[in-house]
Amino acid sequence: MEHKRWVFLLAIFACLLFFSRGRVAVLKWKTDDDSPVYNHTLALTLVEYTSAVYMSDLTELFTWTCERCNGLTKGFQVIEIIVDIEHCLQGYVGVAKDLNAIVIAFRGTQEHSIQNWVSDLFWKQLDLNYPDMPDAMVHHGFYSAYHNTPVRPAVLDAVKRAKKFYGENIKIMVTGHSMGGAMAAFCGLDLVVNEGYENVQVMTFGQPRIGNAAFASYYSLLVPNTFRITHDRDIVPHLPPFFYLFPQKTYHHFPTEVWVRDLSVLKIVRFGIEKVCDNTGEDPTCCRSVMGSSISDHLTYFGVELMCETWRQCSIVMGREVESYSRRDSKGNIFLSRTDPSTEVTETKTQSTTGVSSI
Ligand SMILES: *[C@@H]1O[C@H](CO)[C@@H](O)[C@H](O)[C@H]1NC(C)=O
Asked: PANTHER family in the record, alphabetically (predicted)?
């Protein structure tokens, strides 16, 4: 039954794609010469930050000792972890001294199976006016995940603390995968529009479309330093669908896409080719030039896994040693906070599994 539904949806999707392919000039985008340059090393670094946000052991995440808290992210100092139990969201804020940046990362959805989540994406409506941006429409679910949950206040507060402690000149980098990429985009925009921060950059991995063309053009003017990484045939960046016959009515990505393709030579060597796409957001020569139908391409970027160790079991584990940093709100959502990460959390191996719930 489930399988049939999936096949049916794929068939519809194929039809939609057939009608939505093609070249169309949608909007005139401002082109300036000092436009941001895509940085491959930074992408490799941020994908590791995005991978770590899927870890369920909050103690290891807070002390940055988790299995994925290594490599290019070594030495990261977490100052806030947010677990929204009610909506099954997770994110963190911290400081990467080597990047001279505050890094904010959001996890993708864990609510249902990934297949269900993806098939629901076909039907998402543009049903919310983005505040104070005439004609800009977005999907309320993506918007609300960031704006109408405990995530936003906790993120903003952590950014304020970090700026106070590390200086106003520190950059802000917002990242996330899948649904977390959608949240990252709304967060980056919020930091610019409502908080007045400068030097905000956003890099997302496999994010869905979140708004219409008007929204995309506001977004790209306000947060120009944004790169949207897409991986080969990842299905999610194709959703919700783009209808080129109705450019003003349809969902529309903001720029700049970077399409990473897998190429295998003699079926042995696999390597990625990156294509930095045009400034329309809907470059027909990038991921739109192929049929996006792959879930597995969605779950790894640059060879880095972007999911929990096991699906549906993103329960959280928290050791007693971080309890003094933690608080719960009335809905049971969990926050771990500190400002000065030099206050060492002493690691002991006695772990209590508090609040193990299937969230
Ligand atoms: C790219 O990002 C890395 C940090 O990940 C930085 O060290 C490097 O200087 C950047 N390169 C350019 C050309 O900006």
From this structure: ALPHA/BETA-HYDROLASES SUPERFAMILY PROTEIN, FUNGAL LIPASE-LIKE DOMAIN-CONTAINING PROTEIN
Topology of domain 2-22+38-337, CATH: Rossmann fold (3.40.50)
Pocket of ligand 1 contains residue 96 by CB under 6 Å = no
Tell me the domain boundaries of the chain.
2-22+38-337
Q: What are phi and psi of 30, to 5 degrees?
A: -65, 130
- The single residue listed with the structure tokens 């003699």 is 266
Sheet holding 101-106, edge to edge: 269-276, 257-265, 226-231, 200-205, 171-177, 101-106, 89-96, 77-84, 334-337, 326-328
CB 201 within 8 A of CB 225: yes
Tokens read off for 354: 């508090």
* CB of residue 109 inside a 6 A radius of ligand 1: no
DSSP 208: P
Instruction: Work out the angle between the directed axes of helices 140-147 and 179-193 (0-180°, nearest 10).
Output: 60
Encode the chain (359 residues) as per-residue pLDDT tens digits: 455 555 444 444 443 444 444 333 334 444 455 789 999 999 999 999 999 999 989 999 999 999 999 999 999 999 999 999 888 899 999 999 999 999 999 998 877 788 889 999 999 999 999 999 999 999 999 999 999 999 999 999 999 999 999 999 999 999 999 999 999 999 999 999 999 999 999 999 999 999 999 999 999 999 999 999 999 999 999 999 999 888 778 999 999 999 999 887 766 666 789 999 999 999 999 999 999 999 999 999 999 999 887 655 557 888 888 888 999 999 989 999 998 776 666 544 444 444 433 33
Residues 170, 175, 181, 183, CA torsion sign: negative
Residue whose CB lies within 8 A of the most ligand 1 atoms, among 37, 41, 97, 274, for a mutation test:
41
CB 243 within 8 A of CB 250: yes
